Amino acid sequence: MARIHLGNQEKRSVCFFMATFILGLVILFGGAAIYGTVCEKVFGPDDRETPAYSKQDGVDYVPMRCWKNSLINLLNIAGTGPIFGPIQGILFGPIAFITIPIGNIIGGAMHDYFCGMICLRDGGTQMSAMIRKYSNKGVFTVYNIFVCVLLLLVGAVFVYTPGDIAATGIFNFDGAATSVSTWVIYGVIFAYYLIATVFPIDAIIGRIYPIFGAILMFSAIGVFIGLFVKGYPLLNLWDDWNGALFAYGDYFSTGHFIPIFFVTVACGILSGFHSTQTAIISRTVKSERQGRMTFYNMMVLEGFIAMVWAAAAMGIFNLGVQEATASTTSTVIAVCKNILGPVGGVIALVGIVVLPITSGDTALRGLRLTISEVLHIDQSSNSKRLGLASIIFILVAAILVFAKFNANGFNILWRYFAWSNQTLALFAFLAISIWMFENGKAKFVWIPLIPGAFYTFVCSTYIANAAIGFNLPWAIAYPVGAVCVLAYVIIICWYGKKRASRLRKV
Length: 506
Fold this sequence. Notes:
The protein is an all-alpha fold. 75% of the residues lie in helices and 0% in strands. It is built from 19 helices and no strands. It has helices spanning 8-16, 19-43, 51-54, 66-77, 81-89, 96-121, 127-133, 137-170, 180-198, 205-229, 248-254, 257-264, 273-281, 291-319, 328-375, 382-405, 409-438, 446-465, 474-505. Helix 5 packs across helix 15 (328-375), helix 8 packs across helix 9 and helix 8 runs antiparallel to helix 15. The longest helix has 48 residues, at 328-375. The radius of gyration is 22 Å and the shape is globular. The relative contact order is 0.16.
């Protein structure tokens, strides 16, 4: 395949300086420092006793150190989303280097912080309990359906993707649905999920996650450094987006950047799945003052991972090492081995396998906790937890078999996962907004309302147009989205003021 030839001047401006990419990193970390402080001051953490102490049970309510909570939360939220999503999203061009950090600091990190902190202050409740408290029965019912479906999809996706990467990238198997090796690898992942779902959080997750975290950071930092060492050619906003190997500009102009990009790139910008994970960690936090590091900053770090992988993908696309139209899995393998070499590449791939596995185990754990709380199922013993977990695992296995043997199964699975993931975040934004009305912080309701309104437009237009949805033309889908945004804002403001007025009367 032909390679792009870069002159000396072009090398200095694109390869070495990578101006737009670097600008995006400045926005990410600088913006996080400023906006994270704003979010923290609005919430107002104090020194009250946390559920980790007041409800300590040795299973889910367990006091753990800040660094361990932060690391566990990062590994919980960072599945294949901040890798697979940005690799697909970078096809829209260098605009991704700006939209990812902005969306992260005002949307995703804010979402994770308030979800985690509200659940923490309300006694370490699951998100379902938070939705129930700050909405009505109808919204609560719809939410439970969404969250159960999403967590099942997460469990299936996070067996499929790490299993296939391990099979093809680490062990050099074919990864075919008919290969015994494929299902052996899936089975090992399933076995780990079952153990991590059933046993106390500090017995499995709290002990092995530091090891996983070290591998994760090696892969992310290794790829980041490799971008500069290798001089990967990245495009800037002011460059010609249509290159010899891939026309980013044409893809942007015809690909409906809004909503497609924001559904494709979930983790790294905003992910509704994260609310189910921050709720878990709210039960192990020793102090509310650790919340910013544990929740907000870990989402920012996930944004960094997304930026790195978006840049790495663009780099190998521009060099002709990998076709932009190739599978995401093969792109991941190509990046690792091209940047880090055979040995380092395998280690990095291990880190990438770890990411979804460490999200899948807590996704299924979160599903077990959600179902048990909603249906009031006792989970005090291993046998009782195993009984409920077994039912969940049977359903996940069925979804996995469909996705593996159906020619378009994974694409269908991923699309439903992506849309339901973003839609789930709308419930969280609603609850955060109502919490602000009820707690005398109505003047700050714009903090969750702005990203909530934007993603209402994203989710409604996407499902209106998508083949997996209503299959309407874009000319109709966009007005539908606008109407949904208007309804979303009006309903939240009306309902929030109503709830606040009711509390004042009491």
